Amino acid sequence: MSLVLDPAAQDLLFREAHTANTFSDEPVTEEQVQAIYDLVKFGPTAFNQSPLRVVLVRSPEARERLVAHMSEGNQAKTATAPLVAILAADNEFHEELPRLFPAFPQAKDAFFSERTSRESAATLNASLQAGYFIVGIRAAGLAAGPMTGFDPAGIQKEFLDGDHTPLAVVNIGKPGDGAFYPRSPRLAFDEVITTV
Amino acid sequence: MSLVLDPAAQDLLFREAHTANTFSDEPVTEEQVQAIYDLVKFGPTAFNQSPLRVVLVRSPEARERLVAHMSEGNQAKTATAPLVAILAADNEFHEELPRLFPAFPQAKDAFFSERTSRESAATLNASLQAGYFIVGIRAAGLAAGPMTGFDPAGIQKEFLDGDHTPLAVVNIGKPGDGAFYPRSPRLAFDEVITTV
C-alpha cells in the first residue's frame, strides 16, 4: 500500500464519491458548511492568497434568480438541491495579502499591482480551493454536484460584482434516488504522467 | 462533529499538513506516484474532461533545466526535492472527450470547438485537479511544495508544447529539517462565505 490515508477515507473522498444529480430533502446546515470551511481553509494557495469566495444561495427568491442563469440541463437539480453554492474568485484578493502573508507583506505591491496578474492568480488559486472545497463537501458525508454550465455574466451581475468572477456552481446535499450516473472512464497513468 | 471524515485523515490532508520548503533524501517511488494518480483521477471535472497533465522531472539534466526557469527563491528547494512535478493544462483535451464522456460524445464539438473556450475550461478544470493532486500527495504521507513562481513561457518551451500551459510546479517528498514555515492566518468564515 503506497497510500497512508485510511481506505475508508479514500473511498469517502474519491473512490466511492460521485457527482450527484439528484438530492434528498435533508437540509445542509450552517454547522456543516462551517465545518467544511474550517477544514479546507488550510489547503495551500500561492502566498496564502486564499481568493475563493462562496455565496450560499438559500432563499427561494435567490434560488429562482440563480436557476434562471443555469444551463437548461442544470436547472432542475439546481432548483431542488438542499443547498447551492456559487464559487467565485476575488480578483482584489491582494488587499488582504499583508494580513494573509505576513512573512512578505510586500507581495501585494511586488507581484499583484496589475489587475491582469491578479486575475490569473485568482483564477488558478480559487480553482485549487474549489478542488479542496469539493473534497471538503465529501468529508462532511455529503455529495457535491459541481457545474460550469451557466451564464457567468448573469451570475456575476446577480450575485457578485465586477471584482468577483464565478468559477463553478455546486449543488450540495445527500444523494437522492438515481443520483449517480455510471462512472466515466479515466485516462490511464501513462496518458497523463510522463517522466523526463 | 459535522464532518464524517476520520480526524486522523483531516489532519493528514489539511489540518496538520503544511507546504514543505526542505525535504529529506528519501526517494519518491513510481509506485507512490501511481497510487496518488489512481486515487485522485476520480476527482470530478466538467464533462470528465480531465485536462491535467503531469511531467515528473527526475533526471539531473532535466532538473537543472527546470531550476533555471524557477524564481530565485524557489530554485534551491526545486534543485533538492526528491521529486518535482510540473502540472499543466492540456488545451486540446477535447480530443479525448468522446472517450471520456461517452454519455454525450457531442460535447467535443458542441462546447469546445473554439480554442478560447477550451483554454478557459482547461485552466479551471486542471486547477481543480491540481487541488486533488496536492491532496493526493498528502494521502501518500508525503509533503507537497506547490509553487507558481517560475517563467511559464520558459517551462512551456523546455518541457511542454504550445498546447499545454504550465499551472504549477510541485516539490514532493518527506519534509526535511526546518521544512515548515509558521502557519499563516486564514480568512474568517464570514469573510469568505455569504448567504443570500
TrEMBL record, chains A, B:
Keyword annotations of the record: Flavoprotein, FMN, NADP, Oxidoreductase
Example GO molecular function: oxidoreductase activity
Nitroreductase domain segment(s): 21-174
Lineage: Bacteria, Bacillati, Actinomycetota, Actinomycetes, Kitasatosporales
Listed NCBIfam families: PRK05365.1 (NF003768)
Pfam families: Nitroreductase
Keyword Flavoprotein: yes
UniProt-recorded name of the protein: Malonic semialdehyde reductase
